[in-house]
Every structure is written in structure tokens, then in C-alpha cells.
Amino acid sequence: MESLRHRFLDEERKAALQNFENLGFPTKKDEEYKYTNLKEITEKNYNFFPKESHNITKEQLDQLHLGEENFDWIVFVNGKLHKELSKVSIENVEFLSFNYALNDEKHKEVFDTYFNTIASKDTAFSNLNLAYCKYGFFLKVPKNVVIEKPIHIFYISQNQEENTFYNTRNLLIVEEGAKVEVIESHHNFDSTYVLTNSVTEIFTYPNAKADWHKLQNDNNTSYLIDNTFARQEKDSLTTVNTFSFGGKLVRNNLDFIHNGSNINSFMNGITIIGKDQLVDHHTAVHHNFPNCESYQNYKGIFDGNAHGVFNGKVFVDKIAQKTNAYQQNNNVLLSEGATIDTKPQLEIFADDVKCSHGCTVGQLNEDALFYLRARGISKKEAQALLLYAFANDAMQNIDIEPLKEKISKLLAEKLQVDLEF
């Protein structure tokens, strides 16, 4: 017999699909997408129901790992959770695939309380995700439980004969005093196009710590629309790090909501792209209570005909006194064809705050380049070293050493510089 929850969710899905049809895909006429043309992805045909069969090998999976033998990892292939490819040792938590949790009456109260409560109701991609989501990751960390091992979530697409559309959904609940670190990565093994429309909801309770690291290094037939919403209660700390190195078009929508005092929010990003790639970061922090801090530091390096976008918003409510909000976006253009549109924004309605924002766009420092070359370093190596140093400070708050090393190696590969680890 169909549950009341199921019927209610079906109604939500129908309403979301109707909302999407009313909104339509964003175009450059929409203010939030004025610098990002989605026609390349929206004019293609996609299969919404991927073929489940695959022939992923252990060697292929090993190449995706960060050398994280001491991690836990969860592998989704073509939307389905594969326990035989995963390693889960965590205890004292509620962990399930999203689809199973969604259909399990035991988790009805959790989903009624959290599911789709902070995700945007008025954007096309969030509505489309709600209408079709059934793949993804659900984790609830109980009070005072500290998960020592980072958890790496792999979303893999393989053996698809048609262009494929995934609507993945993640739900993370970190209760009072708990701690967890999550790494998320997407990988397309086919030459057909993959469009992933992901929605993640993160809830961090008092004195809890949640870190979510996004490693975006997919191939050139991959598109990613990532929508992440984080709600924090008092005395909590939440970090979202976004490392964008691959994928044809990547759009990151990041929304932090403060729901208490003494909250700390950290957003860091490194983008290194070339050819005709596009990476667009849109961030927003809602300071709704006093004595909170937010820190945004995004670095971009663009070559070829690559296009970068950064639009960071900070909203400070009139009661949010003693707010400390920092926002910085620095970019280096390596070619005449590369472009960046950057727009940091502050909307402040309180009078006792410390808020700063800034952006820079330019080339490498010629004095520093001359200094290195005068010491026998070739021009190419000197440029790479300066770019590495430029990007490096955006990953200083990564606590996971294998992840920090992986990002350093990817930086070195992208910049073609020899580093010793």
C-alpha cells in the first residue's frame, strides 16, 4: 500500500515540475545568468533514466582515489549505490542511499523535517531536481559523534549510449557536537554528454562541524549544475571548498543561511581552466544573527578561451551586529582569449560590522617573474611557480592531508610545474 509520505512527495514532485515549466531554463536575460550562456547544454537531448549496467574495473576506480586507504568511500554508478565497490566502516550514524531513505517509513520524520526545506523553491534547476531526484547520499551524524575518517562520494557515469541527465540529491545532518568531512566528485567515462543537476542540503547544529569538499575534475563532455544550501545553528562551523579543474561547463550555486549567533562559515575556491571551458561561482551568505563570521576566498587562473564568473553576495540583517564578513576574488588571465566577469556584492543593514570585499584581474607580477628568472629559473617554470603560490592559499583550511596533496598535484599538473611531495 502506498504510504501517505509517498503520495505527499508525488504531489511535491508534480508541483516542482510545474514550477520548472513556468520558469524554464535560465537565459542570459536572467540577471543571475547574464554572464553564463546555457544554450550549449539546454539544447541537447538527454535520457533521464540511465542504463544501470556497467563494467567499471577496480583499476579505473583506484585511479580516482586520493590514496585514501584510511577513508570511507561510497560509489554510485549510473545513479545506483554499489556496496561492493564501496567501503563503509562508520558506525553510530544513519547512512543510506537517498532513494532507500526516501522510501523507508522509518525515516519519514527525518525527511519531513529536513528534505527540501532550505533548497530554493524558485530556481529552475532546484525544481527540476525535486521533480526527478532519486539518486544520492543521505547521512545523519548523531549528537557528539565524531567521524574520524573522511567520506568520499563518487558519482560515476559509464556505459551510456545516449546523453544522460542525472538529478542527484544529497542530505547531510550533523547534530550538536558532531563532526564530519565529505568529499564529492563526479566522473563521466563515456564520450556521450552527461548533465548532472545536483542539490545538496547541509544542516549543522550547535558546536558541530561540517566540511564539504567538491573536487570538480571531469572530462570535456560533462556539465555540472551544483546547488548547495547550508543552514547553521549557533556556535557551528561549516566549510565548503570548491576545486574546479575540469568539465565543459560548471555552475556552482552556494547558499549559506545563519540561524544563530557565533557562527563561522568558510567558502574557498580554486579554478584553473583553459580551452573553451566555463566555471561560474555564485555564492550568498545570509547573516541573520549577531556575532557571526563568513570568509570567502576564490582564486581563478584562466587560459585559452576559458571564461570565469564570480558573483558573491553577503547580506547582513539589521540585527546582525558585530558581523565580520570577508570576500575576495583574485584572477589571473594567461591569454588574450580568456575572460572573467566578477561581481562581489554587500548588502548591509546593520551599523556595527566589519565587512570587506574585493576583486582583482590581471597578469603575473613582472617583478616577481624577473626575480625568479634572475636566479636561473626558466620563464615557464617561474610562471608556474608564481601561479602555484597564487592559488595555494585558497586551500589552507583543508584538514585532510591526502586531499590537500591531491589538489597540490592537480595544480602542479595543470600548471606544468615539478613539485616534490
TrEMBL record:
<dbReference type="Pfam" id="PF19295">
    <property type="entry name" value="SufBD_N"/>
</dbReference>
<dbReference type="Pfam" id="PF01458">
    <property type="entry name" value="SUFBD_core"/>
</dbReference>
<dbReference type="InterPro" id="IPR000825">
    <property type="entry name" value="SUF_FeS_clus_asmbl_SufBD_core"/>
</dbReference>
<protein>
    <submittedName>
        <fullName>Fe-S cluster assembly protein SufD</fullName>
    </submittedName>
</protein>
<comment type="similarity">
    <text>Belongs to the iron-sulfur cluster assembly SufBD family.</text>
</comment>
<dbReference type="GO" id="GO:0016226">
    <property type="term" value="P:iron-sulfur cluster assembly"/>
</dbReference>
<feature type="domain" description="SUF system FeS cluster assembly SufBD core">
    <location>
        <begin position="161"/>
        <end position="390"/>
    </location>
</feature>
<dbReference type="InterPro" id="IPR011542">
    <property type="entry name" value="SUF_FeS_clus_asmbl_SufD"/>
</dbReference>
<dbReference type="InterPro" id="IPR055346">
    <property type="entry name" value="Fe-S_cluster_assembly_SufBD"/>
</dbReference>
<feature type="domain" description="SUF system FeS cluster assembly SufBD N-terminal">
    <location>
        <begin position="6"/>
        <end position="153"/>
    </location>
</feature>
<dbReference type="InterPro" id="IPR045595">
    <property type="entry name" value="SufBD_N"/>
</dbReference>
<dbReference type="InterPro" id="IPR037284">
    <property type="entry name" value="SUF_FeS_clus_asmbl_SufBD_sf"/>
</dbReference>
